[in-house]
Design goal:
This protein has one domain: OB fold (Dihydrolipoamide Acetyltransferase, E2P), CATH 2.40.50.100. Helices cover 18% and strands 38% of the residues. A seven-stranded antiparallel beta sheet has the order 5-8-9-3-2-1-10. The longest helix is centred in the first third of the chain and has 7 residues.
Length: 125
């Protein structure tokens, strides 16, 4: 089972079997509505924590997705690029954006646990 950690802008970093994936939370997907397009980063690209690394278009809005930690893209989820509805169907599973290498392990401790994220007031207050 994967361990999910979140930032306050609703992106997650999941660790499973020594590998990290990034994506957006179920809450973020619900707020966006039906996803119509996902622009993914290129494999090999690097992003600093807080930098936009992907874009999601929905029937409601276009939103940037921010790096939860300093990271390098190992591979992208090509299936998500071809079928953006996967994000609505399974954001914490098949709807992940990319497999990443965490460049600064100390930043992981700044993320919010799954339990604390679920209890968090997500209205921004």
């Amino acid at each position: 089972m994967a361990e999910y950690l979140y930032n306050k802008t609703h992106e997650y970093l999941a660790r499973k079997d020594g590998e990290y994936t990034v994506g957006i939370s179920e809450f973020a997907v619900q707020e966006l509505g039906d996803i119509t397009f996902v622009e993914l980063p290129a494999a090999g690209s690097e992003f600093r924590r807080g930098e936009p690394f992907a874009t999601v278009e929905s029937v409601k809005a276009v939103s940037e997705v921010y790096a939860p930690v300093d990271m390098a893209i190992v591979s992208v989820n090509e299936e998500l690029a071809e079928h953006p509805e996967l994000l609505n169907e399974d954001p914490l599973g098949n709807g992940y954006f990319a497999v990443v290498r965490v460049m600064d392990q100390s930043q992981i401790s700044d993320l919010i646990s799954d339990e604390d994220y679920k209890a968090m007031d997500k209205s921004g207050n």
